[in-house]
Amino acid sequence: MAAVLNTRIDSRSDTLSPRIPAGLAIVFSVAYAAFSLRRHANFQTSGFDLGIFEQAVRGYAHGELPVSDILGHNLLGEHFSPILAILAPFYRLFPSAETLLIAQALLLGLSVFPVTRTAIRLLGPMLGTTIGFCYGISWGLHSALAFDFHEVAFAVPITAFALDAYLRGKLGQAVAIAASLVLVKEDLGLTVAMLGLLIAVKPATRRLGLITAACGLTATLVSIFVLIPHFRGTSYRFFEAAGSGTGDWFDSDKIVLVLLVLAPSLFLALRSPLLLLVLPTLAWRLLSSNLFYWQPDFHYDAVLMPIVFFALVHSLTLLRLRRFSTAIAAALVIAGTVLTTSTRSSVVENTDANRAAIAEPARRLLQLIPDGASVAIENDLAPQLTSRADVHLVGSGRPAEWTLVYRHRTVPLGQFIASAGPFVLIRN
Q: CB-based burial of residue 218 (10 Å sphere; 0-12 exposed, 13-18 middle, 19+ buried)?
């Protein structure tokens, strides 16, 4: 594995203009933002999880703890993600759910830059640009975009820039960048630890690697056993599902997940030791009994995409397949397009007509609710109101001044205010 650091192959492209990587990053950022904002405008976002994160960021923006009324507790007691506080100044200026969606689009779009730049530097403009494009359309990123907002959006560019530095041989810089992953989510300290082990393979950098591995592991343990229980008041709740999903390692969903993670690289990423970085994230998901962790429909795979594509780039430099560049580029585009358009998260999916149909009546009723009110509301309406009201979901058992529900629910006692489309608004 010492060959991991032997990456200055065909580095004559080092002085290549950054216009192509920057251009792709800008194009994808705009496309991601447009897609996310369209979904939100058509009421395709939800309290779980956009509303939860907006309430947390709203707390930070007002100098308070990131408490979510929807979740019912401090978000730091759910996952250790203090990096969300970075969004506080922007949310203070633009207090809306759209601020979070745009921030996520920009973060994911930013990650396109280091992937493309490294690919062009090592593989040349044609294949490098193609790899950058295929990364931008990768199904893992679009699954995240199609499921509201999550803290892992920060991990994607951090991982990408860390691996960019790693493949440039700037290991200290790679560690410094990757270290911030421990502020994104508690399990990502294990990814930092794995990076440290890769660095430790070479005798000259063994000390740096072992220190990095030890610090990454320590950060995860401290987050899980000290920080999260402190903010939650109970033990780490995700232990409840840990270890009980191991009964069938050959479950079809697990096999499909692993194949989908590797497929965007045409399985060539298997040649690179960098692919080992996906193991911590895949391990906790496959060890869990939560079936959602095995499925490719949510945000969990976004952080794996930069790893897979950097492993692809590294693999191609090791395999020296430059003469097959055109064929590889064509195959990557085909594979990426098929994978992305075949998932429910596809950016080319048709807007759900049913969701679009309820948007206007829902907006009319939401306008009747005053700012600062406490509201019990449906999950798919919550993020439309979390910027200006104290929102929790119907059925939480907590009192509220207003209730906005679907007609088919048992209408709570109170003063009928209005109805529109499938909704009814009650003043409690």
A: middle
